[in-house]
Structure formats: structure tokens, C-alpha cells
Amino acid sequence: MTVFCIIPCYNSGATITRSVQSVLDQTVPVAEIIIIDDGSDIATKKVLDKLKQDISIVTIITQENKGASAARNTGIQYCSSEYVLMLDADDTFEPEYLEKAIPLIEADAALAMVMCYYYIKNDKEEDIPRALRNASFKEYLFSNYGVACGLYRRKALLDVGGYDEAMLEGYEDWELLLHLKKHKWDFVVLPEYLFNYYNSPNSRNKEALKKDRKIKKFIFLKYKEDYIIHYEDLLAHFTDLVSSKEATILKREQSIDFIIGKSILAPFRKIKSWIS
């Protein structure tokens, strides 16, 4: 049994040493840590060079900037291990993660991944706990119930062709999990907080949220036939989204700040109507 770790890196010089250290701290050692330098800046390259010099099991693969999906796929192709520990360059695992995850994935050949509960870590706020559950393929069509980082079976990743490299703007982890579910691979959730997601200012997830509709449209079109099969669920999903949006607008309009602001602006709007 061998485990390689894949860490895609794009301008993450300030955080990647912390991520690598969390892999080195595992109570079950990994055979190799593959860092994919996805066209990083000079400052990050200097950090990566030092990691390679200081740590014998670190391998750096450099490529032009192609995005996180392509970087991970490069790592998957390079690996010769049965299992792959996928980690982002600003996140960390607790030392016992592999020790507890490996027996689970080895016990069931149908498992593609072992995910675990995790904390969202913010600079100025308390850690936010996130408990996960194993959801169905249909549930994954409408929301991401998983987490990107974890222990994967390499065979499962190759079976679905890895990550979709067309997804350059985010949610590629959701699409991968959805694709694995569609191909009858399963996940298991380790009910312990053994992963830390750092909600950094430059997080790709924050950028993805700004393009939420565009990215979801891509997923909806890619899995069009599956959404058609679950048409009533899709209709209910969008109805709930509209209702939630309307409730948010109504709550805002009933707030004291909105009412006061509206009353203050009213005379100016009336003057504007006279002028026009």
C-alpha cells in the first residue's frame, strides 16, 4: 500500500510550507509529495526550490498556468501509487487523518474517497465546524455535499478521466465528486474533524462564488440528461432558490436601515422626476 500526495500550487508561497508540513506530520508516512507548480511567481518558486532541497520526498513538476484541474491531473498521471492524498496549497490535515482513512478505503473496493469533517479557518473569526454526510448522486446534482481534499483511490480518478480541465473558474471538486457518483463510485465520511480549510482572502472559492451562475450553468449542461431525468427535483430546486431570494429581498426592505434610507432619498427622487 502506497500513498502519494498531490498539491497544486499557484502563487501559494506564503502557505504551502504549512500544507507540506501537515503531510510530513502524518502518523502514516506518504511515499512522495508531488507539488505541481502551475506557473507560479518567482517568490513562490523560491519557496518550492527550498522545499525540494530540504525534503527528500518532495518532487516539483513545473508547467504553464493551466488551472487547478489540469495541475491535479498532471499529478494523477505522475503517481504510481494505489492511493492519492489530494491537498490544496493553503490547507492542512491533522496528523491522524491517513491513519484513520486508509483502513476505511482498503476495506471497500467501491470507495473512491474518504472525506472527513473539517473546520473552516478564518483570520479574525472562530473556526467554523462543518460536518459532512454521504449524499446520493441526485443530491450531488443540486449541491456539493463533499470536500475537495482527502484520500482518493487512483483507479477511481482514472476511471472518470480525472478533473474536468474546462472548469477553470472553480467548483471542479464538486463536478469530480458528481462524476464519480455517476460512475457508481462511493464515498465514506470519517466523522472526525481532521481537515482544516483556510478561508484566505485570495481563495478560489471566493472567486467561484462571484461566477456561481456561470459555473453552475456549465454543470447543468454537462449533466443535462441527468437533470431531465430529475426534472421535478430541478423545478423544486429553482423554486426554492427564487423563494429564498424573494425572502431575502423582503427582509432587506423591511429593515430599519432600508426604510430610513428610502425616506431620506425620497425627496431627491421626486426632484429628479420633476427635472426629467
Characterize the structure shown.
Helices cover 48% and strands 21% of the residues. The termini are far apart. The chain has 276 residues and is α/β, with parallel strands linked by helices. It is built from 12 helices and 9 strands. It folds into 2 domains: 3-209, Alpha-Beta Complex (Spore Coat Polysaccharide Biosynthesis Protein SpsA, Chain A), CATH 3.90.550.10; 232-275. The protein is globular and about 60 Å long. It has helices at residues 16-24, 42-54, 68-78, 97-106, 137-142, 154-159, 172-182, 204-210, 212-222, 224-229, 231-253, 256-275, and strands spanning 3-9, 32-38, 58-63, 83-86, 92-93, 111-121, 128-130, 150-153, 186-198. The model has no long low-confidence stretch (mean pLDDT 88). Strands 1, 2, 3, 4, 5, 6, 7, 8 and 9 form a 9-stranded mixed β-sheet that branches.
Defining traits:
276 residues; alpha/beta; Spore Coat Polysaccharide Biosynthesis Protein SpsA, Chain A; 9-stranded mixed β-sheet; 9 strands; 21% strand
Describe the protein's topology.
Blueprint: E1 3-9, H1 16-24, E2 32-38, H2 42-54, E3 58-63, H3 68-78, E4 83-86, E5 92-93, H4 97-106, E6 111-121, E7 128-130, H5 137-142, E8 150-153, H6 154-159, H7 172-182, E9 186-198, H8 204-210, H9 212-222, H10 224-229, H11 231-253, H12 256-275
Parallel strand pairs: 1-2, 1-4, 2-3, 6-9
Antiparallel strand pairs: 4-8, 5-9, 6-7, 6-8
